[in-house]
Amino acid sequence: MDILDVLPSNFGLVIFTYLYSWIMLGYLAVKVGSARKKYDVQYPTMYSDKEPVFNCIQRAHQNTLEVYPQWLVFQTIAALVYPVAASVLGAIWVTSRFSYAWGYYTGDPAKRMRGAYGYIGYFGVIILSISIALQLLRVF
């Protein structure tokens, strides 16, 4: 049995969503690396006592890494049954992480909420995953 026979026909869209998320993570990581040089924050120091803007840049990346594993799990579960919906929801979530970061990069942590629309994508794949679980349990 070939993997191409097992996965839904539109699963390629999901793979592109994963690639998009990889680009987003790389972008956030590069921004932290650049900020380390700009604000002279040496490894392994995670946060600066003197540079709050650096801390905002670091937090944008760190917060994304904190939620990324959960998103990957729910994105994958949802995509196995609803690949197009999961891809759209995933693209919303990934795009929102850019908005979140750009808001945070201003140095005003409240502006990170510019990415709050990402909850549509995040909770969307969670809801789809719950739906799949209930279908597997034959609840409905």
Characterise this structure:
The protein is mainly alpha-helical and 140 residues long. Helix content is 74%, strand content 0%. Helix 2 packs parallel to helix 4 (83-104) and helix 3 (52-81) runs antiparallel to helix 4 (83-104). It holds the Pfam family MAPEG. Pathway: Lipid metabolism; arachidonate metabolism; Lipid metabolism; leukotriene C4 biosynthesis. One of its GO terms (molecular function) is leukotriene-C4 synthase activity.
Features:
140 residues; mainly alpha; 5 helices; 74% helix; elongated
Summarize the model shown.
The protein has 140 residues and is an all-alpha fold. Helix content is 74%, strand content 0%.
> So what's the overall shape?
elongated
What are the segments in which pLDDT stays under 50 over at least 5 consecutive residues? none
The biggest beta sheet, please? none
What's the mean pLDDT score? Answer: 96
Structural class: mainly alpha
Output the number of helix runs: 5
Number of beta-strand segments? 0
Spatial extent as radius of gyration = 18 Å
Task: Specify the helix fraction band.
Answer: over 70%
Percentage of residues in DSSP E strands: under 5%
Q: Could you give the distance between the termini?
A: 30 Å
* Run of helices and strands: HHHHH
Quaternary organization: single chain
Family: Belongs to the MAPEG family.
Pathway: Lipid metabolism; arachidonate metabolism; Lipid metabolism; leukotriene C4 biosynthesis
Subcellular location: Mitochondrion outer membrane
Keywords: Lipid metabolism, Lipoprotein, Lyase, Membrane, Mitochondrion, Mitochondrion outer membrane, Oxidoreductase, Palmitate, Transferase, Transmembrane, Transmembrane helix
